[in-house]
């Protein structure tokens, strides 16, 4: 099954405007949701498709996808860091409202052209296979994430980008299960190095997620406070 998975850059032929929290997505299922769904899917679809079209038009691509047949089973989303830091971008999560996600009118802003960018850095937003919350996920820990990052590195180098950055955490199971991030060891194996680390703002207050994170950190022999850090990893491209 894993041998059937193809890794490729996302194109306008099939825009993956939402993520894989509910499992793999195909052309037939991406626009299907319950009429009483709590998520404002129609609004997110309009906002996200316009934004992805803009990124693709201006920068060539903004995602790598893992596809089995006509079904997407994994994705890696990335954006120019300059745009990531623009007012209105939020944290560019496609399934949340501002400030976690982009403002509804964010795609209407003027994005700097490639030739205008002094900072040629791509920022990885999330790395996901099938559903992060799915038990017995058949696509997780099968090398698909590694292959998607390798494809991004290849594409970024060919396209003239100078570096790639990602947010990482210490190596704890809950990071892989719940977030769209990976542990620092994953990135270091791919040639990334730690550029900086700082306390993650959303891990300062105690909640169920933080409680489980602390339990896993203790079991792994990792300092609890370090387990709550955001680790920025960077790869300089030749």
Give an overview of the whole structure.
It is a single chain. The chain has a single domain (2-31, 40-108, 119-236), classed as Aminopeptidase, CATH 3.40.630.30. Helices cover 29% and strands 24% of the residues. The protein has seven helices and nine strands, in the order ββαββαβαβαβαβααβ. Strands 1, 2, 3, 4, 5, 6, 7, 8 and 9 form a nine-stranded mixed beta sheet that branches. Helix 3 (144-159) links the parallel strand 5 and strand 6 (163-169). The two termini are 34 Å apart.
CATH class: Alpha Beta
Average pLDDT, rounded to a whole number, is: 92
Instruction: State the total count of DSSP E strands.
Output: 9
The description of the largest β-sheet is:
9 strands, mixed
Q: From the helix content, strand content and strand pairing, which structural class follows?
A: alpha+beta
Helical residue percent band: 25-40%
What keywords describe this structure?
alpha+beta, 24% strand, 9 strands, nine-stranded mixed beta sheet, Aminopeptidase, 238 residues
């Amino acid at each position: 099954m894993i041998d059937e998975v193809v890794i490729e850059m996302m194109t306008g032929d099939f825009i993956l405007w939402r993520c894989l929290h509910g499992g793999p997505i195909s052309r037939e299922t991406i626009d299907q949701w319950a009429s009483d769904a709590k998520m404002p899917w129609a609004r997110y679809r309009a906002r996200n498709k316009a934004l992805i079209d803009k990124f693709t038009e201006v920068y060539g691509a903004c995602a790598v996808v893992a596809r089995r047949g006509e079904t997407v089973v994994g994705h890696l989303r990335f954006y120019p860091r300059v745009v990531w830091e623009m007012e209105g971008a939020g944290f560019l999560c496609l399934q949340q409202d501002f400030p976690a996600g982009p403002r509804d009118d964010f795609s209407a802003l003027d994005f700097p052209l490639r030739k205008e960018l002094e900072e040629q850095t791509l920022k990885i937003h999330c790395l996901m296979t099938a559903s992060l919350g799915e038990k017995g996920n058949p696509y997780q820990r099968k090398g698909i994430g590694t292959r998607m990052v390798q494809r991004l590195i290849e594409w970024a180098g060919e396209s003239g980008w100078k570096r790639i950055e990602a947010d990482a955490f210490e190596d704890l199971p809950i990071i892989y299960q719940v977030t769209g991030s990976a542990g620092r060891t994953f990135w270091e194996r791919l040639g990334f190095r730690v550029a900086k680390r700082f306390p993650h703002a959303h891990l300062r207050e105690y909640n169920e997620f933080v409680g489980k994170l602390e339990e896993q950190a203790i079991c792994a022999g990792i300092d609890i406070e370090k387990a709550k850090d955001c680790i920025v990893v960077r790869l300089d491209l030749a």
